[in-house]
Amino acid sequence: MAFITGQAVRGENFWGRPYLMEDIVEKIESGEHILLVAPRRVGKTSLMYHLMDTMSEEYIMVYVDTEAEHSVDDFWQKLFNELMDEAFIATLQNKASALWNRIKSIRPTEIGMKGVKFGDSAPIDYKKAFLSLLSSIDEGKKLVVLLDEFSQTVENIIQHESPQEAERLLQTHREIRQNHKAPSKVVFIYAGSIGLESVVSNIKATKHINDLAPIKVPPLEKEDAKAFVFDLCRRNDMELQESEVVYLLDKIEWLIPFYIQLVGQELKRLYRRNAAIDNAMIDKAIDKVLENRVAFVHWEERLNILPGRERRYAKDILSFISKEGHIKTAELHNMATKYQLKEAKSKSVIHTLEYDGYINNNDNVRIYRFNSPLLKIWWYRNVAN
Ligand SMILES: Nc1ncnc2c1ncn2[C@@H]1O[C@H](COP(=O)(O)OP(=O)(O)OP(=O)(O)O)[C@@H](O)[C@H]1O
Ligand SMILES: [Mg+2]
Fold it and tell me: What span, in angstroms and rounded, lies between the C-alpha atoms of 305 and 202?
């Protein structure tokens, strides 16, 4: 297991998250559709890959990343094309022969810009083609559609088409999920780097997703994180004492695998030069991580989808906390007044910051802090000043 700090991890590089996997698998088995809820970089895509690689034979897994799609039609076309992909089809031959035959019967020349032809029929659109394929799934098999970056797609459609079109897509998804035939045939798992719930609530369409079973992807627990660090060290021929691991984890605090990998990677670089790791070296590695703009800048950029005053309010809150360590609700109220935001708007901004993994009020409902001290320092150095 090398240090991986960009791409989603897969295979032996995936640090197992057994309880979480069991929670997800249980939902899939009972036919529930899932909303994977987690902020950026927590490990959603890696979890989806792991599901693809480990679900039992009765499940036909298809992974689709629709981040680049900007219209409802593009969304359905992308999903359909994924089902037409050679690598995907190859997995079907032995496992789901009826579906395989059906897909094979669609001649590639008849898949065009506007739609797809089945046999002699007139072209039908990609959404209908997808639904039609669902009816060909073999008895006893279930299609699991892993829709990564779905919330970004919805946001793209809101921006490039219209909120009505975005709502239409959400509505269709709900209809497919509620279809009396569909539950036994298909399970959808939605994920995204921006919160689907906040995107959808902005267009007042929450009713279309309230049947989804939300599953939170939390950071690692301390003991699990410890074991993860030891494992990474062992595989990278690094020796670390328990007291140093504890020091490192205390510094990271918000224990997502990504931050652990980032610090580990820097530590390895330093270790090469001096194999005696101590707390000062850990501090140095963390400082180096904080110079890595790419690892943090999305936290700032992501807020740009908020409208003007709300965006400035959100950034101001974070800058305030990065300087003072925390913010009290009374101060939030004053700041909202400064930006002429009514209570409901102010609450929705705070909810977005909580939901998307920036801040929490776990210790005291009236006081908000950063989840991650690393992000706090980065924000202080790069945005607040
Ligand atoms: N189970 C895991 N084991 C080891 N490393 C992990 C794991 N999950 C996540 N990571 C680390 O976090 C990084 C991001 O993982 P991943 O791309 O899966 O997250 P994500 O939530 O999909 O991110 P984004 O919101 O940017 O799409 C990986 O490059 C890796 O460093
Ligand atoms: Mg991802």
Answer: 11
Q: What gap in Å lies between CA 332 and CA 32, rounded to an integer?
A: 38
Confidence class for position 124, pLDDT limits 50, 70, 90: confident
Rounded to the nearest 10 degrees, the angle between the axes of helix 163-178 and helix 126-134 is 10
d(CA 102, CA 89): 11
Coil, strand, or helix at residue 214?
A: strand
Q: Is 186 helix (H, G, I), strand (E, B) or coil?
A: strand
In this structure, the dihedral spanned by the alpha carbons of residues 260, 215, 52 and 93, taken in order and rounded to 10 degrees, is: -170
Q: Ligand 1 centroid vs 78 CA: distance in angstroms?
A: 23
The pLDDT confidence band at residue 253, using thresholds 50, 70 and 90, is: very high
Q: Which amino acid is at 99?
A: L
Give the closest residue (by CA) to ligand 1 atom 9.
Answer: 43
Q: Cα–Cα distances in Å, from 130 out to 33, 70, 143, 208, 223?
A: 17, 19, 12, 20, 44
pTM: 0.92
Q: Which residues form ligand 1's pocket by a CB distance below 6 Å?
A: 4-9, 14-15, 17, 38, 40-46, 193, 257-258, 261
Return the residue matching tokens 């810009």. 113
User: Which residues partner with 61 through β-bridges?
Assistant: 144
Residue 35 tokens read as: 């909303």
Which stretches within 117-195 are classed as H helix?
A: 126-134, 150-160, 163-178
